[in-house]
């Protein structure tokens, strides 16, 4: 007789273990440009902050994609504390499982935003870019049943 193994159980917390901070702040950036004064170096001190503003059941500081939200509201704030920034752009690469709405014929996975030429001083007031991402394609149906119970069962004591 041939033994056919049954379905393998998977704990639900292992389905989508993508955890991260809802806020990310970039390091200051500097670059060279001949139009940046006598030293030809722009000290733009570009700042970036990314925030997931999606409403979720979990704590606001945790992004957990197993929430199975079909839309993520991602806000990217860009600003500058130093000299002018020339040809500054914000480029985002969107995973192919996600989608964003521009037009039906668009299949691109990168978004490129011109920030202004030059991008002037913004101080601590970052310019917001808001992206609504459809995350329905990030989840797939499992072939294996899901088990939310602990892996060890309690022992019964006979009396």
From TrEMBL:
Predominant cellular place of this UniProt entry's protein: membrane
Q: How does it sit in the membrane?
A: Single-pass type I membrane protein
User: What's an example GO BP annotation here?
Assistant: integrin-mediated signaling pathway
A cellular component term from Gene Ontology for this protein is: membrane
Q: Where is the Integrin alpha second immunoglobulin-like domain?
A: 36-118
Among its keywords, does the record have Zinc? no
| Matches recorded under SUPFAM superfamilies | Integrin domains
Claim: Glycoprotein is one of the keywords in the record: yes
- Give the subcellular location: Membrane
Q: Which domain of life is it from?
A: Eukaryota
Keywords attached to this Swiss-Prot or TrEMBL record, sorted alphabetically, are: Glycoprotein, Integrin, Membrane
Gene3D superfamilies in the record = ntegrin, alpha v. Chain A, domain 3 (2.60.40.1510)
User: What name goes with this protein?
Assistant: Integrin alpha second immunoglobulin-like domain-containing protein
